[in-house]
DUF2785 domain-containing protein
Amino acid sequence: MLKEQLDQIIRHDYALPKGLDEFEAVQQVIGVLGSTDAELRDELGYRILANWLLRKNFLTGSQLSVILEQAISDEMLFDKIDDAESDHVFKRTFSSLLIALILIRDNREQFLSEAAFFQAYERIGLYCRLEKDYRSYVEGNGWAHGPAHISDAIDECVRNRFTGLDECAKLWEGLLHLIEGAPQVYDAEEDERITIPIIAMVESGKVPFSTLCEWLERIELPSEKDLISMTRRINIKHFIRCLTFGLLAKGLGKVEDLMIIERKFNPFVAS
Protein backbone atom coordinates (compact mmCIF):
# COMPACT_ATOMS: atom_id res chain seq x y z
CA MET A 1 0.00 0.00 0.00
CA LEU A 2 1.09 3.58 -0.61
CA LYS A 3 1.42 6.21 2.10
CA GLU A 4 -1.60 8.05 0.75
CA GLN A 5 -3.78 4.95 1.08
CA LEU A 6 -2.62 4.27 4.62
CA ASP A 7 -3.07 7.89 5.60
CA GLN A 8 -6.64 7.75 4.32
CA ILE A 9 -7.31 4.70 6.48
CA ILE A 10 -6.24 6.63 9.58
CA ARG A 11 -8.15 9.75 8.55
CA HIS A 12 -11.32 7.68 8.19
CA ASP A 13 -11.11 6.17 11.68
CA TYR A 14 -9.24 3.09 10.48
CA ALA A 15 -12.04 2.00 8.17
CA LEU A 16 -11.35 -0.86 5.76
CA PRO A 17 -10.38 0.21 2.24
CA LYS A 18 -13.17 -0.37 -0.24
CA GLY A 19 -13.05 -3.71 -2.02
CA LEU A 20 -10.96 -5.48 0.62
CA ASP A 21 -12.01 -7.79 3.43
CA GLU A 22 -10.26 -7.73 6.80
CA PHE A 23 -7.75 -10.46 5.98
CA GLU A 24 -6.80 -8.96 2.62
CA ALA A 25 -6.38 -5.50 4.14
CA VAL A 26 -4.23 -6.78 7.02
CA GLN A 27 -2.02 -8.69 4.60
CA GLN A 28 -1.49 -5.60 2.47
CA VAL A 29 -0.49 -3.51 5.48
CA ILE A 30 1.85 -6.26 6.72
CA GLY A 31 3.62 -5.81 3.40
CA VAL A 32 4.97 -2.40 4.47
CA LEU A 33 6.55 -3.59 7.73
CA GLY A 34 9.88 -4.22 6.00
CA SER A 35 10.07 -0.75 4.47
CA THR A 36 13.08 1.46 5.17
CA ASP A 37 10.69 4.43 5.29
CA ALA A 38 10.02 5.03 8.99
CA GLU A 39 6.77 6.86 8.40
CA LEU A 40 5.40 4.13 6.16
CA ARG A 41 6.55 1.26 8.36
CA ASP A 42 5.97 2.61 11.85
CA GLU A 43 3.72 5.67 11.96
CA LEU A 44 1.32 4.30 9.34
CA GLY A 45 1.67 0.53 8.88
CA TYR A 46 2.27 -0.64 12.43
CA ARG A 47 -0.11 1.96 13.84
CA ILE A 48 -2.92 0.68 11.62
CA LEU A 49 -2.23 -2.97 12.46
CA ALA A 50 -2.27 -2.23 16.19
CA ASN A 51 -5.61 -0.46 15.84
CA TRP A 52 -7.19 -3.09 13.64
CA LEU A 53 -6.05 -6.05 15.72
CA LEU A 54 -6.41 -4.64 19.24
CA ARG A 55 -9.13 -1.98 19.07
CA LYS A 56 -11.34 -3.11 16.21
CA ASN A 57 -10.56 -6.81 16.80
CA PHE A 58 -10.19 -7.60 13.11
CA LEU A 59 -9.71 -11.25 12.08
CA THR A 60 -10.88 -14.52 13.53
CA GLY A 61 -8.75 -16.75 15.69
CA SER A 62 -7.98 -19.04 12.75
CA GLN A 63 -6.95 -16.07 10.61
CA LEU A 64 -4.72 -14.71 13.36
CA SER A 65 -3.12 -18.15 13.66
CA VAL A 66 -2.26 -17.99 9.96
CA ILE A 67 -0.76 -14.51 10.40
CA LEU A 68 1.29 -15.70 13.37
CA GLU A 69 2.74 -18.58 11.37
CA GLN A 70 3.62 -16.08 8.66
CA ALA A 71 5.20 -13.65 11.14
CA ILE A 72 7.54 -16.26 12.67
CA SER A 73 8.63 -17.57 9.27
CA ASP A 74 12.05 -17.40 7.63
CA GLU A 75 10.62 -14.75 5.31
CA MET A 76 9.67 -12.39 8.15
CA LEU A 77 11.16 -12.84 11.65
CA PHE A 78 14.27 -14.53 10.24
CA ASP A 79 14.62 -12.58 6.99
CA LYS A 80 18.38 -12.39 6.24
CA ILE A 81 19.10 -12.85 9.95
CA ASP A 82 22.77 -13.60 9.28
CA ASP A 83 23.29 -9.96 8.24
CA ALA A 84 24.95 -7.95 10.99
CA GLU A 85 23.68 -4.61 9.67
CA SER A 86 21.33 -4.36 6.71
CA ASP A 87 17.92 -2.94 5.86
CA HIS A 88 16.38 -6.39 6.34
CA VAL A 89 16.46 -5.71 10.08
CA PHE A 90 13.27 -3.66 9.82
CA LYS A 91 11.22 -6.58 8.56
CA ARG A 92 12.56 -8.77 11.37
CA THR A 93 12.01 -6.31 14.18
CA PHE A 94 8.57 -5.22 13.05
CA SER A 95 7.63 -8.88 12.66
CA SER A 96 8.38 -9.08 16.40
CA LEU A 97 5.83 -6.35 17.04
CA LEU A 98 3.27 -8.13 14.87
CA ILE A 99 3.85 -11.32 16.86
CA ALA A 100 3.29 -9.36 20.08
CA LEU A 101 -0.03 -8.01 18.76
CA ILE A 102 -1.26 -11.51 17.95
CA LEU A 103 -0.17 -12.86 21.33
CA ILE A 104 -2.01 -10.01 23.05
CA ARG A 105 -5.16 -11.10 21.23
CA ASP A 106 -4.56 -14.71 22.18
CA ASN A 107 -4.11 -13.77 25.82
CA ARG A 108 -7.54 -12.12 25.60
CA GLU A 109 -9.38 -14.72 23.52
CA GLN A 110 -7.37 -17.97 23.80
CA PHE A 111 -7.62 -19.09 20.18
CA LEU A 112 -4.12 -20.51 19.66
CA SER A 113 -3.60 -24.23 20.04
CA GLU A 114 -0.88 -25.33 22.42
CA ALA A 115 1.18 -26.53 19.45
CA ALA A 116 0.84 -23.18 17.65
CA PHE A 117 1.85 -21.25 20.76
CA PHE A 118 4.92 -23.38 21.38
CA GLN A 119 5.98 -23.10 17.77
CA ALA A 120 5.99 -19.32 18.17
CA TYR A 121 7.65 -19.59 21.58
CA GLU A 122 10.51 -21.69 20.17
CA ARG A 123 10.99 -19.34 17.21
CA ILE A 124 11.14 -16.32 19.50
CA GLY A 125 13.85 -17.98 21.59
CA LEU A 126 15.79 -18.88 18.46
CA TYR A 127 15.53 -15.30 17.22
CA CYS A 128 17.12 -14.02 20.45
CA ARG A 129 20.10 -16.29 19.85
CA LEU A 130 20.51 -15.53 16.14
CA GLU A 131 19.85 -11.79 15.80
CA LYS A 132 23.08 -9.87 15.17
CA ASP A 133 21.73 -6.39 14.48
CA TYR A 134 21.31 -4.55 17.78
CA ARG A 135 20.92 -1.05 16.37
CA SER A 136 18.32 1.17 17.99
CA TYR A 137 17.58 4.27 15.90
CA VAL A 138 18.96 4.15 12.37
CA GLU A 139 19.57 7.59 10.91
CA GLY A 140 17.34 8.16 7.92
CA ASN A 141 15.36 4.94 8.47
CA GLY A 142 13.94 5.21 11.97
CA TRP A 143 13.71 2.58 14.67
CA ALA A 144 15.07 -0.93 14.26
CA HIS A 145 15.17 -1.64 18.03
CA GLY A 146 15.27 -5.42 17.76
CA PRO A 147 15.92 -6.27 21.43
CA ALA A 148 13.13 -3.96 22.59
CA HIS A 149 10.62 -5.27 20.06
CA ILE A 150 11.25 -8.96 20.71
CA SER A 151 11.00 -8.25 24.45
CA ASP A 152 7.43 -7.09 23.85
CA ALA A 153 6.66 -10.45 22.25
CA ILE A 154 8.37 -12.29 25.11
CA ASP A 155 6.29 -10.34 27.63
CA GLU A 156 3.15 -11.70 26.01
CA CYS A 157 4.64 -15.21 26.04
CA VAL A 158 5.21 -14.90 29.78
CA ARG A 159 1.56 -13.95 30.30
CA ASN A 160 0.25 -16.84 28.21
CA ARG A 161 -1.76 -19.69 29.75
CA PHE A 162 0.65 -22.29 28.35
CA THR A 163 3.69 -20.75 30.06
CA GLY A 164 5.00 -22.01 33.39
CA LEU A 165 8.30 -21.94 35.26
CA ASP A 166 10.18 -24.10 32.76
CA GLU A 167 9.07 -21.96 29.83
CA CYS A 168 9.98 -18.79 31.71
CA ALA A 169 13.45 -20.20 32.34
CA LYS A 170 14.00 -20.59 28.60
CA LEU A 171 12.63 -17.12 27.91
CA TRP A 172 15.02 -15.79 30.56
CA GLU A 173 17.92 -17.33 28.65
CA GLY A 174 16.81 -15.56 25.49
CA LEU A 175 16.53 -12.22 27.28
CA LEU A 176 19.90 -12.69 28.93
CA HIS A 177 21.44 -13.32 25.52
CA LEU A 178 20.11 -9.93 24.39
CA ILE A 179 21.98 -8.31 27.28
CA GLU A 180 25.21 -10.27 27.01
CA GLY A 181 25.38 -10.35 23.21
CA ALA A 182 24.97 -6.65 22.49
CA PRO A 183 28.05 -5.22 20.71
CA GLN A 184 27.46 -1.73 22.08
CA VAL A 185 26.13 -0.17 25.28
CA TYR A 186 22.38 0.14 24.99
CA ASP A 187 21.34 3.76 24.53
CA ALA A 188 17.59 3.67 23.83
CA GLU A 189 16.07 2.01 26.91
CA GLU A 190 16.46 -1.51 25.56
CA ASP A 191 17.49 -2.65 29.05
CA GLU A 192 14.22 -1.27 30.44
CA ARG A 193 12.16 -3.11 27.83
CA ILE A 194 14.07 -6.36 28.44
CA THR A 195 13.25 -6.27 32.16
CA ILE A 196 9.48 -5.92 31.60
CA PRO A 197 8.85 -9.62 30.85
CA ILE A 198 11.15 -10.66 33.69
CA ILE A 199 9.18 -8.56 36.15
CA ALA A 200 6.01 -10.12 34.72
CA MET A 201 7.42 -13.59 35.48
CA VAL A 202 7.60 -12.72 39.18
CA GLU A 203 4.43 -10.64 39.31
CA SER A 204 2.40 -13.45 37.73
CA GLY A 205 3.70 -15.94 40.28
CA LYS A 206 5.21 -18.15 37.59
CA VAL A 207 8.76 -17.51 38.80
CA PRO A 208 9.40 -17.20 42.56
CA PHE A 209 11.52 -14.21 43.51
CA SER A 210 14.08 -16.57 45.06
CA THR A 211 14.42 -18.40 41.73
CA LEU A 212 15.01 -15.13 39.89
CA CYS A 213 17.73 -14.27 42.40
CA GLU A 214 19.38 -17.62 41.69
CA TRP A 215 19.29 -16.89 37.96
CA LEU A 216 20.85 -13.47 38.54
CA GLU A 217 23.58 -14.90 40.76
CA ARG A 218 24.64 -17.23 37.94
CA ILE A 219 25.45 -14.35 35.58
CA GLU A 220 29.19 -14.07 35.14
CA LEU A 221 30.91 -10.76 34.51
CA PRO A 222 33.85 -10.81 32.11
CA SER A 223 37.10 -9.82 33.78
CA GLU A 224 38.97 -8.80 30.64
CA LYS A 225 39.74 -5.12 30.04
CA ASP A 226 38.95 -4.99 26.31
CA LEU A 227 36.11 -2.86 24.93
CA ILE A 228 33.80 -5.82 24.21
CA SER A 229 34.08 -7.04 27.80
CA MET A 230 33.55 -3.54 29.17
CA THR A 231 30.43 -3.15 27.02
CA ARG A 232 29.05 -6.40 28.36
CA ARG A 233 29.77 -5.41 31.97
CA ILE A 234 28.04 -2.05 31.55
CA ASN A 235 24.97 -3.58 29.90
CA ILE A 236 24.67 -6.19 32.65
CA LYS A 237 25.02 -3.52 35.34
CA HIS A 238 22.38 -1.30 33.75
CA PHE A 239 20.08 -4.29 33.28
CA ILE A 240 20.39 -5.26 36.96
CA ARG A 241 19.64 -1.70 38.00
CA CYS A 242 16.55 -1.50 35.77
CA LEU A 243 15.32 -4.83 37.09
CA THR A 244 15.94 -3.85 40.72
CA PHE A 245 13.96 -0.63 40.49
CA GLY A 246 11.23 -2.30 38.45
CA LEU A 247 10.74 -5.02 41.04
CA LEU A 248 10.82 -2.59 43.95
CA ALA A 249 8.30 -0.30 42.25
CA LYS A 250 5.84 -3.20 42.20
CA GLY A 251 6.63 -4.34 45.73
CA LEU A 252 8.22 -7.55 44.52
CA GLY A 253 11.15 -9.07 46.38
CA LYS A 254 13.28 -7.92 49.28
CA VAL A 255 15.46 -4.81 49.18
CA GLU A 256 18.33 -6.54 50.97
CA ASP A 257 18.39 -9.42 48.46
CA LEU A 258 18.33 -7.05 45.51
CA MET A 259 21.12 -4.94 47.00
CA ILE A 260 23.33 -8.02 47.37
CA ILE A 261 22.91 -8.63 43.66
CA GLU A 262 23.43 -4.94 42.83
CA ARG A 263 26.73 -4.92 44.74
CA LYS A 264 27.93 -8.00 42.88
CA PHE A 265 27.55 -6.29 39.51
CA ASN A 266 28.25 -2.68 40.45
CA PRO A 267 31.71 -2.03 41.96
CA PHE A 268 30.76 1.57 42.73
CA VAL A 269 28.14 0.58 45.30
CA ALA A 270 29.63 0.51 48.79
CA SER A 271 29.37 -2.80 50.60
